[in-house]
Amino acid sequence: MKVIKDSVHDHIQIEGVARELIDTPQMQRLRRIRQLGTVSLVYPSANHTRFEHSLGVYHLACQALEQLGVDGPLAKRVQAAALLHDVGHGPFSHNLESVTHRRTGRYHDDVHDLLADGAVGDVLRAHDLDPASVADLVAGDGRFGQLISGELDVDRMDYLVRDAHHTGVPYGTIDHGRLVRELSFVDGELVLAEGNVQTAESLLVARALMNPTVYSHSVARISKAMLRRAGERLIERTETDAATLQRMDDYDLIAALRSSPETAAYARRLDHRDLYKRAVWAEIDDVPGGIIEADHETIREFEREIAAEAGVDADAVILDVPGRPSMTESTSRVMVNGEVRSLGQQSPLVDALRGAQYSQWRLGVYSPADSSVRVGRAALDVLGLDIDGPLVSDVRDGLYTTLDQFGGDSSA
Amino acid sequence: MKVIKDSVHDHIQIEGVARELIDTPQMQRLRRIRQLGTVSLVYPSANHTRFEHSLGVYHLACQALEQLGVDGPLAKRVQAAALLHDVGHGPFSHNLESVTHRRTGRYHDDVHDLLADGAVGDVLRAHDLDPASVADLVAGDGRFGQLISGELDVDRMDYLVRDAHHTGVPYGTIDHGRLVRELSFVDGELVLAEGNVQTAESLLVARALMNPTVYSHSVARISKAMLRRAGERLIERTETDAATLQRMDDYDLIAALRSSPETAAYARRLDHRDLYKRAVWAEIDDVPGGIIEADHETIREFEREIAAEAGVDADAVILDVPGRPSMTESTSRVMVNGEVRSLGQQSPLVDALRGAQYSQWRLGVYSPADSSVRVGRAALDVLGLDIDGPLVSDVRDGLYTTLDQFGGDSSA
Amino acid sequence: MKVIKDSVHDHIQIEGVARELIDTPQMQRLRRIRQLGTVSLVYPSANHTRFEHSLGVYHLACQALEQLGVDGPLAKRVQAAALLHDVGHGPFSHNLESVTHRRTGRYHDDVHDLLADGAVGDVLRAHDLDPASVADLVAGDGRFGQLISGELDVDRMDYLVRDAHHTGVPYGTIDHGRLVRELSFVDGELVLAEGNVQTAESLLVARALMNPTVYSHSVARISKAMLRRAGERLIERTETDAATLQRMDDYDLIAALRSSPETAAYARRLDHRDLYKRAVWAEIDDVPGGIIEADHETIREFEREIAAEAGVDADAVILDVPGRPSMTESTSRVMVNGEVRSLGQQSPLVDALRGAQYSQWRLGVYSPADSSVRVGRAALDVLGLDIDGPLVSDVRDGLYTTLDQFGGDSSA
Amino acid sequence: MKVIKDSVHDHIQIEGVARELIDTPQMQRLRRIRQLGTVSLVYPSANHTRFEHSLGVYHLACQALEQLGVDGPLAKRVQAAALLHDVGHGPFSHNLESVTHRRTGRYHDDVHDLLADGAVGDVLRAHDLDPASVADLVAGDGRFGQLISGELDVDRMDYLVRDAHHTGVPYGTIDHGRLVRELSFVDGELVLAEGNVQTAESLLVARALMNPTVYSHSVARISKAMLRRAGERLIERTETDAATLQRMDDYDLIAALRSSPETAAYARRLDHRDLYKRAVWAEIDDVPGGIIEADHETIREFEREIAAEAGVDADAVILDVPGRPSMTESTSRVMVNGEVRSLGQQSPLVDALRGAQYSQWRLGVYSPADSSVRVGRAALDVLGLDIDGPLVSDVRDGLYTTLDQFGGDSSA
């Protein structure tokens, strides 16, 4: 048995197959992938990695399995899946996932190949575990897939607490001890036991508060958009293909971006935190139909049009359109008066938080500071946005903290 | 300057008039009044006092005043009010406030007499402070009264964090540093600066989660109801009058309850945590019109009727009817796009949390365990309650923790 | 199973015999006994009780038993002893222990009678546990007695962390998770496994830093001495005898002190924190032979002589002579290179910390502020103290914090 | 004013010259230099950077300056030095400092050139600050240099707390609030005010406990030695010179090590945490005279001899000889009875901790696992070590945690 000291869960015990899995190159690689990507440009303490998060998810999975009374081969399989659930992540975690997915058709939780090959596959088979069945769990399939990737999964319980701990933001402090303890299966579905509507709500609330404060902070979004743009160029204009990029760690990617003339300018800007500014920051109701659903090529075309109209280089415009808000926790299942109900059915908070997500949603147009006014005007015109009042380029920007641009509220 | 070590704010500096005020008997008395009364029967670590809370409120008031650019005599007055804001509390804080208010017409924030008299009055006058004007601030009057007792007051910022810290519950962790830093006055009203809708929401959310978990936990409510009953008897059947009771500390009250034959049985039950159980636990929609608004005498009459019908002693029935839910934070003011708005206007959360409060509201009928089924049946009948399913007396009760009766969800 | 939320260990699970024991009046009484007595007059947040500490000790004992591979009846017995280990404490914990011990011959860990009688005895016997054998463990007897009361006991592991948490002092943060995990038995002796010299040292260091900062802070000592004096009078001049006092809780004692004219003045001073000041504060080398070993009567005689010479009432002088420093941790056993060694043998820190204890030791003479100079002069003379420089009555005193009188260093 | 959220100090306010300095490329580079280098291979959460540490040092310096009553140009100069004090660090902080120092003659605190050039020089001059005088402070020169780099500097106060927070180890929790508050100047020397012997001791104790647990953990030392070896080869066998290496960030270095065939094998081992094992782990008394003082060339010669005798490749042997233990805190100055004393004069702990350092000191010989027994035997012979008992290669190694090799105690 190994014991690893963790800044969130204190001591984590690693046993059996997990003990060998952590020594594989695939797991060790996660030490070099930041959990929150460019969020560290907003919160300087947020340098934690997918490795420590994976240990935490494994730890909570072990507790949940004990609570559910599961041991033997099934428990071993779930533990392996918990530990391995993030090995499919590319550099900077989710930041470049859309770029690689467009070309490989793969998200980070599609790990059948990764688990079958190399050291991981060897370890799994040596412990009589079928890599494919572990990969199924990672993808959320099957009864116990719900525990790894579902509305009540241990992934979320770890990351909310861990991201709050490392950013210093006080909003992610759910009671994971209680959440894990109250899990049970009813008719094959993972549910929270009677008396836990509020425990389920607290998970929802934590994510609703962490989202604008951390995950979708405007500076994190701008730097992520710049990184994504650089990643696109790396694939389009150099020998690096999407599958290769996906298997890099943060060090590989930064080195590649710095060394190619096609991407060096982006790398330098990210290194110096010399970021684009917001030229437009628009609420969902001000965005004409069709734009939110536009595909990648259409977005690129908009960018080129905006640049042309503003008289700037095409590189000087980034259009950042998030998808429509979703709220998967709303289907969390809780026991109420002896019957299983979905949280959305039971809790008035679910609709309210969905409403809050809509009000926090923002379309962003970013550009270098010296052209943001011109780009902003052109973007309003090209996109047909209907915004009253001053352009957001007037708003101070680029702070390291949320203190004056907490969520979407800082738009003018 | 004194420096006091606090488990929440670390070092608290005490200067000027505050330094002398803390040495008065009135302030020292607060060391012997528990902040959360009978909540310590649910959360054994919740033994913190009004004294440390008062220091914390003073500390946050000093920070807020610095942020607002206020110093001189006005700052001194506000600091005195912050430190003294709870000297009017009776034993067990809010637990007996309704009992004494019914007889004295006074709530704990009505402190004009207390501040004018004795050592506190002497200290205030020696520092050229008018006791009446300090008492006005405590009552929430005037521009700076909002900072002491209002929707955005430092009282709430301290108690949410402190109560969470001492109970061990993870839900009260607001960002008080940010809240204090973002305060400003606009047209005489205290508002949160631009970009703080979510900061304001987090205050609301914290209270919404702390409420059922801590403040209105069913065991806390049962023990509070028993204490209140004992307090009533002390006033009605012994020489102790309401004004005297109100000036006691926790030690005086417990000693008085133990020593009088009229109240000793209640004291023994509270000491041994041998509490009444829930005979009925009814949602707001099941309670017939008029009962929520019933006055004290009507409630007592209901209790007697229920006891008669159940064939038990009148002491064996307690009817506990909370007031209608309120949500004062909904009128918090925040700057949005350059104008002052109330939070309720701006945030969809406000309505949702109000809805949640309604769904958590419960009428309780309590009685000794051995008569709870009979009392429950009689209460349904006498009160005309319309409850399907089993009586809540079937539900396990009396645990120390929320873990199986979190909020109102544990009713059957 | 019950789960109790604790501010130190988060969730504590209570099962089996422990679940019934916590509901006994003897255990519930511990809710009303402050862990650190008058230390709350120095650190206002230090209001934690013997009850929560007992739960914590039980929690760590369960972890240690699991680590040691112990279950069945033996584990049940040790768990019961862990939970019950402090039921023998009188009001204000250790503060009055010398007073009652002098008359009853009993310390708080002599609990054979207490465990055999009443509800506790009934519960133990109902679970096939012999109360006497549980009491033996509480007294530290036998192999597993070491775990409850020995150099490496779980009692100390809980209180160092808990007292640090509640005072806010950063020095008690030992790694109890590691300590418990590294315990084993070698030849019937409890030892820390190989590689833990430093783990053992950290326990020693934590106590060495907590001692002057918290446990022996001068203001805590002064108020404790005043409480002890009041307790003496209560026994000597009223109908309360030592055995009765020993069974009181904090509420009983405060009520008794307030209501008797013999002790009311002390009660009022403690309530108002209107404490005696240091008239003398002398290092160990300045104290003539014999005084440290003097018995109670001799001390009282010294006090009378000092009062006579100073021309003050005998009540106005308290002579406070601590015992010689001891350091029980020095005999903690650790494995080093395959053999069991005592920590004192292995670690140069042990001698150094013993030296530090000597340099921190202080004899105190306390009196009301207005007579402290006279009392100080008289005490120097009567006790034959050899102190250069000004009397300590010149030194500012009575602060709530250690910030200017940290340990013994504040003497002039 | 900017406000940055920090996981240790919560909110850090950045004003004036500091606000512009943090935006320079030199400061932004510190985001990409891990504070503890290879320690993250032992404690996976220890990914914090020199950037956040620099903000913390700036924050404490501002508090200390306020306490010392310093403002105006002098304060600005000290604040700039605090923020910039680590810009001279190379990749992986101290890990490669000996390698570059041997060739450039420079340690990380020699920053006269760095502060005079580029954006930093421009900002300093624009704020009327002389870069040379700021660099003097960084080097510890002058009265206020003591605050930046001295026995009582704010650097240490930040890193002890921060490193403890991020590793999860409970030993670094000094009371920095109190330390900063108690600083004053006496005759031009920085001292802690009366009553702070123990505050000073706690700083010493924290470092003494952190040292073997974190900074000199055997796995951290092994991986650091491997990185150092790789760095040597990079300079010796590729076009990278020492000055260039010194200006790299962690990303540059890892990329360089991976891409050169001379160093790729080391990079792969570090990436996969496939580390050398201890072949010898010897106490200071077992090491013959002269070896500790041996220069770099002699050490290399020893390595070649050991490899030859063991019949392995020269790369397969690393000899790691730490310098003699030092304890700079022993000259910290504290006021005692009105005079300035050095801590070593006053506190028996200083000698004891010096003794502990000697007992924890270890010479290490490392090699790949499959040759460690042969290398161990050869090393004993070549170095003339006098060790009884089994070679340490028998001891389990390579754990992520200290839990079984805490400090030097795990040697056989």
From TrEMBL, chains A, B, C, D:
It holds the Pfam family HD. Residues 50-160 form the HD domain. It comes from the Archaea. One of its GO terms (molecular function) is dGTPase activity. One of its GO terms (biological process) is dGTP catabolic process. PROSITE patterns: HD. PANTHER family: DEOXYNUCLEOSIDE TRIPHOSPHATE TRIPHOSPHOHYDROLASE (PTHR11373), DEOXYNUCLEOSIDE TRIPHOSPHATE TRIPHOSPHOHYDROLASE SAMHD1 (PTHR11373:SF4). This is HD domain-containing protein.
